[in-house]
Design a protein that fits this description.
about 400 residues, alpha+beta, eight-stranded mixed β-sheet, globular
Length: about 400
């Protein structure tokens, strides 16, 4: 393996590359807006890496993703939808804490179980593939000395206050830009970005990311739990038909107050991954839930680009992208009016290939159609929360 692979560098699956302040949209129970920026690239096979910056003044992290045996990946890092499941867990718990603290009530979340349901339908071969998503089902075990109705009201308010959950509840028209061999070319059949040209990540970085010296990371930020042999042999996801893709996750507080430990489970046999989400207002030992959410969208979209390139045998040498995603808070936690929000995702895709522009333009559309998270972002699917 080379350094352009997850295990070739010898580095952890995730690490800090820049110090910075905690983003207001993570730390506050009051109005805030933070733009998360992702710079991503495809490396070996289905492996991908990115740098996600938590705002201009925030910390930045290198994260990695892979696919499991069901997509013929090497199963070394979390599949993209694992990041999203972890983010939905941790951001929800963070908003529970904001509301409980601001309203002077004692309520602790002891455990979360979260089910995401996705489906693939159509055919990759024919270019008719379509990803869809259903509402997240969230079961929350809490400890609190208050009536069940009061607990229920606080949990509902926390769901409304979560920018990650708002991303599924609020239909978005996400935008795209395309660069082919260094030229920005028109996009077709997807909403065009109106933003100025972005810099190709290849030109923005002198080399592969390396851990920041002296960084106080809570390593391991991502921990791999190998596949259980009792689950049976892995099955490759068919490239056509109607295929359910459930993603399950569980989480609980870590030994450090304010840090959530989420574990996500693949749809079929494959490794599970424990992902730390740091929601503390004054420290940044791990990426926030919002950073993992932004990474999940980028990783999921790149997976679909890669799958279609493979199925069609397109001559594409490099796949890179820049994604910006604003998360917002409005209202006030003390008054119970805190509301999480998200603005459209803007994605600039850089492809180096020996193919006509029309083929590359089609790639954008096919990947957007089949990306499960983009499907959820353009839908209105509010989460369902139940206290247990």
């Amino acid at each position: 393996m080379t350094e352009d692979s997850i295990d070739g560098s010898g580095f952890p699956l995730a690490f800090r590359v820049r110090n910075g302040d905690r983003a207001p949209v993570v730390a506050n129970g009051a109005p805030a807006r933070t733009v998360y920026r992702v710079e991503a690239r495809k490396i070996f096979g289905h492996q991908k890496e990115l740098i996600v910056a938590e705002g201009e003044a925030g910390a930045a992290w290198r994260l990695t993703s892979d696919e499991g045996p069901n997509l013929k990946g090497t199963d070394l890092a979390p599949f993209p939808l694992a990041f999203w499941n972890a983010a939905m867990q941790a951001d929800f718990v963070n908003r529970v804490r904001h509301l409980a603290r601001a309203q002077g009530v004692a309520l602790d979340v002891e455990r979360v179980e979260l089910l995401n349901q996705y489906w693939f339908s159509g055919s990759f071969f024919k270019g008719t593939g379509q990803g869809t998503a259903g509402p997240a089902a969230v079961q929350v075990a809490v400890r609190a000395a208050m009536p069940p109705a009061r607990i229920r009201a606080l949990l509902d308010a926390a769901r409304a206050a979560s920018p990650v959950h708002a991303a599924f509840a609020t239909p978005l028209v996400n935008t795209f830009a395309l660069y082919v061999n260094g030229r920005r070319v028109p996009v077709v059949r997807v909403a065009a970005s109106t933003r100025p040209d972005e810099n190709d990540p290849y030109k923005s970085h002198a080399g592969a990311p390396r851990p920041l010296a002296g960084a106080a990371d809570l390593q391991p930020l991502i921990d791999r739990v190998p596949m259980d042999p009792s689950e049976g042999p892995p099955k490759v996801i068919p490239p056509e038909g109607k295929i359910p893709i459930p993603i399950r996750g569980t989480g609980q507080p870590s030994a450090i107050d304010g840090v959530w430990a989420a574990t996500a489970y693949p749809a079929g046999p494959g490794s599970r991954f424990r992902i730390l989400c740091d929601e503390r207002p004054d420290e940044t030992g791990a990426p926030s839930a919002l950073a993992h959410a932004a990474a999940a969208i980028a990783f999921c979209y790149m997976t679909q680009l890669t799958r279609y390139i493979e199925h069609r045998g397109h001559k594409v040498r490099q796949v890179r992208m820049v994604q910006t995603l604003p998360f917002t808070l409005a209202g006030d936690a003390a008054a119970g009016t805190l509301r999480g929000g998200v603005e459209p995702v803007d994605t600039h895709v850089f492809l180096h290939a020996e193919e006509p522009d029309a083929v590359m333009q089609n790639l954008l559309e096919v990947a957007e159609n089949t990306c499960y998270l983009h499907a959820a972002l353009r839908s209105a699917i509010p989460s369902r929360v139940v206290a247990t």
